[in-house]
Each structure stands twice: as C-alpha cells, then as structure tokens.
Amino acid sequence: MNARNLLMLLLPVFGIIAACASSKNYDPEFNAAPQDVQSDWPLARERCSQCHSLDRVFEYVDASTSRDEIEMIVEDMAGRKKSEIQDDEIPRIVEVLDWRRQK
Ligand code: HEC
Question: To test ligand 1's pocket by mutation, which of 40, 52, 101 has the most ligand atoms within 8 angstroms of CB?
C-alpha cells in the first residue's frame, strides 16, 4: 500500500477522533445557546481552560453569580501573567459565562 492510500484510509479515522474530542468539549447546554453565544463558546473554552479546567469555572460560576461578578472574574483572569485573554475578548467571554450560568 502506498502512502497516499494509507492516508485516505486513515483520514476518516482522524475525523472520528476529532469529532469525539470536540463534542466532549461542549456542554449539553451548548446546543440550546443562541447563535452569538455558540460562536464565542470555543473562545471561552480555550481561554478559560488554559490554566485550570473549565469545569472548575462552571462549578464556581452558577445561577447565584451576578453578571458583575463574572466581569470581575474574567478581568482578573485576563490580567494574570501568561493569560492569553485579549481586552476585546473579555465581553465575549462574559456573554458566554453569563448565559451559561443561568442554565
Ligand atoms: C493565566 C492563567 C489563568 C487563566 C487564563 C484563567 N485562570 Fe482562572 N484561575 C487561575 C488561577 C491560578 C486560579 C486559582 C485561584 C486564584 O489564584 O485566584 C484561578 C481560579 C479561578 C476561579 C476560582 C475557582 C475556585 O475554585 O476558587 C474562577 C471562577 C476562575 N479562575 C475563572 C476563570 C475564567 C472564567 C477564565 C477565563 C476568562 C479563567 N479563569 C482563566 C488562573 C487562570
């Protein structure tokens, strides 16, 4: 078997692995979220799981957390050393967490 055929054979396998990996990344709530929240969800996931798991965030940020508190948390985390959170990403991440906490 040549390399090209082997690649064609393996591509679907990679696809399945990637699909499983990414679906694991999303909470059941993801599907119920409005379009703008869904489009920023991966950003929130990536940025807020850089130093700790996102589960930790979702455990902490729940229905009893106010939007102001969420803004403070995200700004605090954005200001941490090595944080990759950009200023313009803060409101987008707040949007996701604020929607998610109400679920
Ligand atoms: C640069 C590293 C870093 C990034 C990025 C980061 N955090 Fe954190 N976070 C920490 C550290 C370290 C702690 C441990 C507690 C502390 O130092 O306050 C923490 C703690 C927390 C806590 C408190 C959890 C608890 O159990 O007390 C929350 C909530 C939280 N982070 C939310 C977020 C959110 C939301 C984001 C994305 C916007 C984020 N973090 C991104 C470093 C980070």
Answer: 52
